[in-house]
């Protein structure tokens, strides 16, 4: 950060809430309720199966012997449900730690000495979003994939930037604004607690709901786009276009012409494709970025 400039003050909590897509919170609450109901109903079903079939009564031997050797088929199915309820959160956490180990082993962490101008941006955005800790950001190579994401382990969140887009924007185009927007978007996921173990556990089973879970995911993307716009002070369209035409060509796209033709991307199958997507289709996403206020369209 330039020491000659006054630092931009942090966002207020009201401002941070205002950047969030209007449908995100209600949809999240609905999915949490479904998640709780699913777990409760599954547990009740398991208990009733045992009560009906006898393993809890000890009528045909000890409970342990019955569980191991003599479970009726109906009860066995319910035990499988119980095991899934227990093991899925454990597996989710184990996979999260495995991914964290992978990126720690195969990445370069952005620090005060490795890409210091980017690290200053990370520190500044963490301050402006009132984050308790500056998230770790790792830079890694994924054979040409253009992406970035935020994720978690038990009590920590971090960001992974894939090197291809970063490399071209950084070296070829000297386009720090696009890098800043990508960083801001992923850090917004952390600020909104999308990338936490508790958030993901709270909707773990609800995530298998078709349409609803993907709609919530799209709402989260709109929320983070809006936060990134206010952090960077740019529309964020160019990094989106890089996902469409690639890292070398996105600077050559006529943005005005692309926006004019966005309105032509419609129809039943476009609607269905967007409905099932975890990210808004690009025409809708870019039209949302062009608006000064409001939320992006989740469905129509």
Structure explained in plain terms:
By secondary structure, this protein is α+β, with helices and mostly antiparallel strands. The protein has one domain (13-290). It has helices at residues 13-19, 24-53, 63-69, 73-106, 116-128, 163-172, 176-191, 197-202, 212-232, 237-245, 255-262, 268-276, 282-290; strands spanning 108-109, 136-140, 148-153, 156-162. Strands 1-2-4-3 form a four-stranded mixed β-sheet, sandwiched between helices. A hairpin with a 2-residue loop joins strand 3 and strand 4 (156-162). The radius of gyration is 23 Å and the shape is globular. The two termini are 41 Å apart.
State the main characteristics:
300 residues, alpha+beta, 4 strands, 60% helix, globular
Task: Produce the secondary structure layout.
Layout: H1 13-19, H2 24-53, H3 63-69, H4 73-106, E1 108-109, H5 116-128, E2 136-140, E3 148-153, E4 156-162, H6 163-172, H7 176-191, H8 197-202, H9 212-232, H10 237-245, H11 255-262, H12 268-276, H13 282-290
Parallel strand pairs: 2-4
Antiparallel strand pairs: 1-2, 3-4
């Amino acid at each position: 950060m330039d020491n000659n400039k006054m630092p931009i003050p942090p966002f207020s909590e009201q401002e941070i809430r205002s950047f969030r897509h209007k449908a995100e919170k209600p949809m999240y609450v609905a999915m949490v309720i479904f998640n709780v109901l699913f777990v409760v109903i599954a547990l009740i079903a398991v208990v009733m199966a045992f009560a009906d079939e006898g393993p809890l009564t000890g009528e045909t031997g000890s409970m342990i012997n019955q569980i191991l050797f003599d479970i009726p088929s109906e009860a066995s199915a319910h035990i499988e449900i119980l095991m899934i309820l227990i093991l899925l959160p454990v597996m989710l956490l184990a996979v999260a730690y495995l991914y964290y180990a992978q990126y720690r082993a195969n990445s370069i962490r952005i620090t005060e000495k490795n890409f210091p101008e980017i690290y200053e941006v990370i520190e500044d955005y963490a301050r402006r979003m009132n984050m308790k800790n500056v998230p770790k950001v790792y830079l890694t190579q994924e054979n040409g994939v253009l992406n970035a994401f935020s994720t978690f382990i038990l009590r920590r969140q971090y960001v992974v930037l894939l090197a291809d887009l970063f490399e071209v924007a950084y070296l070829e185009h000297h386009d720090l604004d696009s890098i800043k927007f990508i960083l801001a978007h992923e850090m917004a996921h952390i600020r909104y607690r999308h990338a936490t173990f508790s958030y993901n556990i709270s909707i773990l089973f609800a995530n298998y709901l078709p349409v609803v879970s993907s709609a919530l995911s799209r709402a989260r993307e709109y929320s983070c786009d809006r936060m990134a716009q206010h952090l960077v002070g740019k529309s964020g369209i160019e990094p989106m276009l890089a996902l469409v035409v690639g890292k070398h060509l996105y600077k050559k796209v006529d943005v005005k012409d692309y926006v004019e033709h966005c309105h032509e991307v419609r129809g039943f199958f476009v609607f269905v494709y967007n409905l099932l997507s975890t990210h808004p289709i690009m025409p809708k996403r870019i039209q949302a970025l062009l608006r000064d206020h409001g939320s992006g369209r989740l469905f129509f």
